[in-house]
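queue> pop job 88
queue> type: inverse folding (structure -> sequence)
queue> payload:
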């Protein structure tokens, strides 16, 4: 069985900003996140990213710029990059099933790898990440990086049984024990 982990991008892999990450120069990894992904790859995991990117619809950046951000991420992973990046360039008001908490990106990941995501881990920093993981029967993990502390402060009942970690590296350390 293929071991697949799904990661949110902004706030989990790279630093987030309320003003959006609008260029490859602004795209900076969260401390330890690149090492965490490398550890997953070395342990035989398939690593997929599911990321809402409404900045495209808002006109803050275009698809070519998004591609340059992802190329930067891959170049930092040297020889063991992320296996798949799925993104939703829509606003929440578009009601697209691709945009989290809709399951479209996760369905695309399942189709890409011919594998069910049920019971697989998903790491995020927002309630939408937790909701989409649950909708697919995945095991959600919340990190405190990015919007994670803000998400925790809302004390939503949907978070009651969700394991919380300092960052992606801490999640990976637990998964690889």
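queue> result:
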């Amino acid at each position: 069985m293929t071991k697949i982990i799904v990661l949110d991008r902004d706030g989990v892999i790279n630093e987030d900003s309320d003003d959006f990450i609008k260029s490859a120069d602004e795209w900076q990894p969260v401390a330890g996140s690149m090492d965490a992904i490398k550890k997953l790859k070395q342990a035989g995991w398939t690593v997929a990213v599911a990321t809402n990117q409404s900045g495209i619809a808002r006109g803050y950046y275009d698809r070519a710029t998004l591609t340059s951000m992802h190329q930067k991420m891959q170049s930092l992973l040297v020889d063991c990059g992320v296996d798949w990046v799925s993104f939703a360039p829509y606003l929440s008001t578009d009601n697209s099933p691709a945009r989290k908490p809709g399951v479209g990106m996760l369905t695309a990941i399942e189709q890409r790898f011919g594998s069910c995501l049920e019971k697989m881990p998903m790491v995020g920093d927002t309630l939408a990440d937790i909701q989409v993981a649950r909708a697919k029967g995945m095991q959600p993990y919340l990190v405190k990086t990015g919007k994670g502390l803000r998400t925790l402060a809302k004390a939503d009942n949907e978070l009651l049984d969700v394991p919380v970690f300092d960052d992606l590296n801490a999640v990976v350390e637990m998964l690889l024990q």
